[in-house]
Fold this sequence. Notes:
By secondary structure, the protein is mainly alpha-helical. Helices cover 64% and strands 4% of the residues. The longest helix has 38 residues, at 186-223.
Amino acid sequence: MDRNPFGITPAHFEKQVEKGPRRFPLRYDTLKNNYQLGMATVVLLVVLRLSIGCHFLYEGTWKIKNADKFSAKPFLTMAKGPAAPLFYAMVPDLDGRERLKYELDDAGNPVFEGKSYLSTWEKLLKDTIAKYKLDEKQKNQAADVYALYEKGLQNYLELNGEDIVAHFESLDRFEAMKAAGTDGSDYKKERIWDEQQKLRGEAGKWLGAIDKMGEDYQAALWSTLTEEQQAKGGLPVATTFGDFLDFAVTYGLTAIGLCLMLGLCTRLACLGGAAFLVSVLLTQPPWPTIFPHAPAPVGHAMVVDKNFVEMIALLVLASTAVGRWGGLDYFVENWVLGCWKSCKDKKQTTAGGN
């Protein structure tokens, strides 16, 4: 039987040894006991890093440029799936029970006080007087402004009182229906979602109108200040959790994108971007049985969608040295860390000599 059917001779092997090992995009080096990447792979990984970085950077800069339009609140309130309650809890008083709170008098009629809003407005009045050191005339003007908007708030709540009471009665029935479960029925899932959005829309209409009233109140207080006082900066408005969240998302995305584009702290940026995409996946999990379904033009997905793919890509980049391939991480490692290591070695040598 022919033991060499392919005609391979010892001379053939000698010729291959002279040429050296054949190069592949990914080759295992038996001498160093590790894998080596080819040039094409390195270039494409750098391109992938730049592409994802461009995506994150544009998202962040758009939010900076359109700060008056961007809010993380819709991202949280439109969450669906098992993790949805976690994101709803990040929006204080989502259903307006605290801000639109009322008490029943002896006759059973609703009495609205608007304590949540009035306490905030009163604090702003006191902080404004303290910050700008208003004189007596300005204090009286500011107090008149507060009294005017306090009366306006009371009138608005009384005008819409019956509708607000009916709204919370509907909200109580909805929560009871939701607690009863859906039995996996698509009809019940759709009904619960639609009712939830309807009720939040009703409350949002009243809360939005009062929030606009609060903005007008701030503008009226601002108008009582002189130019010298206004030069001290804006009104001492309290920062809410929503404001903090908007800031964190906006500048977090910008920082991640910039670091990926520059190849600076790349592994940390990749992990940060992947963590953000995990939150996106938790708010909108790509699973066919979760209602509401993704719009048809977006496509159809099960577990794996574009956000999942980008998250995996970031984790792949985090596992490589892509920041040192055409990035500032090369200089950080060779200059900064190199100098630190050199100084450390010198200290150890000096200590050993002594």
